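Aim 2 progress update. The chain analyzed this quarter is reproduced below.
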Amino acid sequence: MASRRPRAHGLGREVIFAACLELAAATGPEGLSFGKIGRQPGADLTAVYRNFADPDELLLALADRVMAMGREGCLPDPWWR
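Predicted structure tokens:
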């Protein structure tokens, strides 16, 4: 009987976002794939598909997350209304 990879419990969007950022830092954006993203936290490709319908949905959500990270701690100038 073939051995199975241990199931990654709690693999949600936050874990997937962290895996994306870690992989992108190590390999550049061209190194990202659903399979690599799933394997990073010890899961597999299907774990990513349980959270995102397709790569486009993941990319849009990741872009939103990265932009939000860039805005953290930023306050508008007093003249901004």
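Residues 1-8 have pLDDT under 50 and may be disordered. The radius of gyration is 16 Å. These observations will guide the mutagenesis experiments scheduled for the next reporting period.
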